[in-house]
Design a protein that fits this description.
Layout (H helix, E strand, L loop, with lengths): L2 E11 L9 E6 L2 H12 L3 E6 L16 E12 L5 E18 L4 E8 L9 H21 L5 H7 L4 H11 L4 H9 L3 H52 L7 H13 L4 H15 L6 H15 L12 H11 L4 H16 L7 E5 L6 H12 L3 E5 L6 H5 L12 H9 L5 E5 L12 H9 L7 E3 L4 E3 L5 E6 L7 H5 L1 E5 L5 H19 L7 E3 L1 H11 L6 H20 L5 E3 L4 H5 L17 E8 L2 E13 L4 E4 L4 H15 L2 H4 L5 H4 E6 L13 H13 L7 E3 L2 E2 L5 E2 L4 H10 L4 E5 L11 H6 L1 E5 L2 H8 L6
Parallel strand pairs: 1-3, 7-12, 7-13, 8-9, 9-12, 14-15, 16-20, 18-19, 20-23, 23-24
Antiparallel strand pairs: 1-6, 2-5, 3-4, 4-5, 5-6, 10-11, 16-17, 17-19, 21-22
The structure holds adenosine-5'-diphosphate.
Length: 775
Amino acid sequence: MKNNKRTIPLIPLRGLSIFPYMVIHFDVGRNKSVNALEEAMVNDSMIFLTSQKEVRIDMPTPDDFYEVGTVCKIKQMLKLPGDTIRVLVEGINRGKIRNVIQEEPYFEVEIEEYVYDKTIDDDKEIKAIMRMVVDSFEEYISAGNKVSSDVLISISEINEPGRLADVISSYIQLDQEDKQKILEAFNPYERLEILHVILKEEIEVLEIEEEINNRVKNQINKVQKEYYLKEQIKAIQKELGEDKDLGAEVDKYIEKIEKIDMPEEVKEKSKKEAERLRRMSPSSAETGIIRNYLEWIIELPWDIETKDRHDIKKSRDILDEDHYGLKDVKERILEYLAIRKLAKNMKGPILCLVGPPGVGKTSIAKSIARALNRKFVRMSLGGVRDEAEIRGHRRTYVGAIPGRIVSSMKKAGSKNPVFLFDEIDKLNSDFRGDPASALLEVLDPEQNNTFTDHFLEAPFDLSKVMFITTANSLNSIPRPLLDRMETIRISGYTEAEKVEIARRYLIPKQRKEHGLKENNISLSDNTIRKIINDYTREAGVRDLERNIANVMRKVAKRIVEDKVEKVRVNTRTLSNYLGIAKFTRSETDRENQVGLATGLAWTVVGGETLSIEVTPMPGKGKLQLTGKLGDVMKESAMTGISYIRSKTEELGIDEEFHINRDIHIHVPEGAIPKDGPSAGITMVTAVVSALTNIPVNGDVAMTGEITLRGRVLPIGGVKEKVLAANRLGIKKVLLPWDNKKDMDEIPDKVKRNIKFVFVKTMDEVLDHSLVKEKK
Ligand code: ADP
């Protein structure tokens, strides 16, 4: 690069920069500038143009303009009206002020002129940066559209690096400062680099601008479109005579939704549904579906919670007030409530009340709600086999409704009720999905705060609910469910307890329900006992209550019809009210008989006595079992037969009985399916009796599993079984030795009625059950 020194007139430019190779015109008005122009024209038409740092300054001093500027050739001058002159100039070389020679009547400066370097560099780096700059420039053009695309063609022909930078710079819109930066870069490579950075920044800004523009445009379009569509709907509805406005209704829904404290998600969803309604024709069927949905949402107890009573003493009073006896059960419940009081947020286990029907499981759950001052809802799971019953149907179904959980919550009217799942052991599962797993989610404190119903399509918080379940037996409860629960057993009542329950609870309750006063009726304890023994056969008191209700109904009728004041129901007149006795204790049943033994069984409805009949017949050793027996019971019978075969000599039985006799074992008594190994010793006793012709003592009942070698193994459900024996008036009960521990549970009154014998072997069983004299 060659540098020349020269003295030259100067014009400071406002808001304008000129690059070499640039051809541009501008207007000159200031006196000093006009003087400079004239001086230039007198000489070689060359002038030095540099930019003012501040556009506003009218009379700049040398400090106010940049040192670096462009030496230009004046191509044309045109006098405009007024004192203005329009000049056309072409940029030639860069120059830098070395000396200011004069400031009046025009600026004259000594500059160093950098003669344009026209060499074409073969350097790879230069080539690379040139290409990059051209690419960026192209991008700049396509992003901004501010430069005619013809320019690109002329630019692609430039192969001098410095010139390329200058030409491109003259086409882009830049700040004064940026332009000056490019101008001051004397080295072509540096100049290209600076330009490249600036171009990239510019492109980014342009893109952001574009984006914002589009967004604004879209918004405007959408608003316009919606407005247009709504107007169209209105017009159509008007045509159809349906212009009754749903708007007011929607507003009311939204207002209600806004007032309820529900999860934001649900709020948004239901508001959206309401808005959907606004756009609908009032006669369309879908409006009904949406209304139904919104009504459900509004009526659910999202934010309604009752305040718990934490007074344990008061809770105890309430439990006692509602139920007789059940001391252990109440104690367990109070403990449970106490723990809940201490650890308020503890996610306690779920109580499961297990026992035969009519022992008060449901009513004690109700009582717990009363003791806690909570609302109570009950949902029976008996026969629930469809998951949709629990989770509801999707709204796309015609007539869809929420599942029973959500419906029950609405019924409860608070988000923290006591929620009773009745008969959890009766839950079915089949192809329609597995209700047990849905239930598992409901009962799981980790998941149930976002229980999702298919109908609501929104989570409902069940975590504040106190769940209680009931079951007749634990056997058929799915294991994972059972693991979640703390079981409390209620086994059944003795006759004396039933009398108390009747006198203190059932009779006053039924009397009131039938509109009778205390002195309208008298029912003696003996009469109650007769109802219990002759009209019911149950572990609980459900039939007893039903029979008492029957008596009350008839008494009420008599009081109204016969105009009597008081009705006395005694043991003799009872049949006038309840008909003939249903379960007389048939004395013949308890005579000593050959081939008939009394066993004790446990069924889901409580303890039962079981008569086992055996008849041997001439035949080929076939064993026949009838009376709805399960597989375990059949196996148990075969084990018993094998045991007898190994003992024929001692027992005095024909050694060949298993070859020349058929044995038929029958277990009568209703259609109740019976299973389990606990009838083992009873079957053996009956078979031995039949084969030896020695009668079985009719006052004896027994239960126990038998092994091949004649050992007696323990069984379950002792309390229920003993209570059943007691109901039947059995005098002596044989129990396996290992069940001795269960005697704690047996009420003292029963212990006084029955003699218990604990046996280890089958020999002992036969000893105590076969009638001795004949042996
Ligand atoms: P479950 O749910 O066990 O089948 P329920 O709760 O339906 O039994 O009870 C049947 C009836 O017997 C109810 O009216 C109940 O109040 C009454 N009941 C049961 N046990 C008792 C008891 N210990 N004291 C008072 N009433 C009882």
